[in-house]
Amino acid sequence: QVQLVESGGGLVQAGDSLRLSCVASTHTFDRLGMGWFRQAAGKEREFVAGINFAGRNSGYADSVKGRFTISRDNSKKTVYLQMNRLKPEDTAVYFCAAASHPSGSRQASEYGAWGQGIQVTVSS
């Protein structure tokens, strides 16, 4: 069972930056696609960004494209989400997820392991 632990969340002002990190416990990390999702209060969980096993292909939700960057360091079994120019509407609990295959995906159903989530709050 893959275990994922997120860090780096917090309270920031609009326009600020944050970098989320997610460390995986599995020795198969370099074979798995990874993703970030978020869930705002009273809303459904939504896709934010995904990256394939090698880090060469990535995809983003339209709402974060050009502001957020997903990356990974397989030697550290870590995936990152660099968030720039944050907006109040980015406020949510952010979840790291490991896919059941090497590709990243926009579909939550294709992710078999999830972190506990970390709060990001952006004040206006």
Layout of secondary structure:
Blueprint (H helix, E strand, L loop, with lengths): L3 E4 L2 E4 L4 E7 L9 E6 L6 E6 L6 E3 L7 E6 L4 E6 L8 E8 L11 E4 L3 E6 L1
Parallel strand pairs: 2-11
Antiparallel strand pairs: 1-3, 3-8, 4-5, 4-9, 5-6, 7-8, 9-10, 9-11
In words, what does this structure look like?
With 124 residues, the protein is mostly beta strands. Strand 5 and strand 6 (58-60) form a beta hairpin. The radius of gyration is 13 Å and the shape is globular. It starts with a strand and ends with a strand. It has no helices and 11 strands.
Keywords:
4-stranded antiparallel sheet; 124 residues
Number of strands: 11
Poorly predicted ranges: none
Helicity, as a percent range: under 10%
Main β-sheet description: 7 strands, mixed
Q: How many H/I helical runs? A: 0
In angstroms, what is the radius of gyration?
13 Å
SSE arrangement, N to C: EEEEEEEEEEE
Structural class label: mainly beta
Q: Specify the oligomeric state.
A: single chain
Shape estimate: globular
What percent of residues are in strands? over 45%
**Cα-to-Cα separation, first versus last residue:** 39 Å
Mean pLDDT: 97
